[in-house]
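Q&A log
Question type: sequence-to-structure
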Amino acid sequence: MTITAEPQAKPGPPSALTNPDTGHRWYIHPVTGERFISVTTVLSHIAKFGLTDWAARLAAQAAFDNLPMLNRASRQPLCNSTRTDDACGNCRDCVTYWLADRHNAERDAAAERGTKLHDAAEHTILHGPGVHVDEDAKPLVDQWYRWYDRYRPEFLATEITVISRKWGYGGTLDAILRFTEQSRLPKRLAHLTGLPLVDDYKSSRNVYLTNGWQVGAYANADAVLLPDGTEQPMPEIKGGLIVHIRPERVQMREAYLTEANFAYFVHMCRVVEGLAAPLNSVLSRPVTMTMKEAN
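Response status: OK
Response body:
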């Protein structure tokens, strides 16, 4: 990959570099300097069904909920500083930007709750229960504990960074786990008992097909990258699992680790690499037809 990223604005996974404007992430090898594009960054280039309509509805709802503010903004002189630290927040341009940004604010808040869920799960796996949980994430964490207490999986690893030199990607998987006979998995998932599984927690409203590709990418990585730059062989993986956690329920889905599904992800890696290519490597400079040539 040739894209560069600015230093990350907030903590992320070890060895990760995140562009604060786009959220795109790369993993930088602490010893060799190799760059590995994040699995989630690759998959973020695929539009998810319904998100455009959802974003439009959020903006429309915010407008109806704030009609007096919109009325005042229509009479306010423009500050000409929208999207800067000097923005007034009250003029038409500032309020328009605020409305158009409602989906980003909601997305970021949901991502923050998801991060808190992952942090609580990691703490419990490594140190046992007792971690402080903010009130906004408590419903999700409570459901994770419900799942954890019900099935009592054996955790083989948690929050580890994996890389693939062959395909040029990296990522941080949530856990590698194994269910025992005492877990008494539902019949539909009973065949996973005893197998080492890549496990991914999802707290978004929906689970998408690409989430299965994400699990497959982690499972097919070449090595585990430790914070000090040393590497370990990738543990043996025999299956994939998504634990979908919502405030009202928990659902589990098997992720099918087939060659075909992994090939789709690899193909997407190459597409994203192409999107990062300089424009002049794909198209020439424009040649404008003059009026004389037109006649």
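Response note: The longest strand covers residues 154-164.
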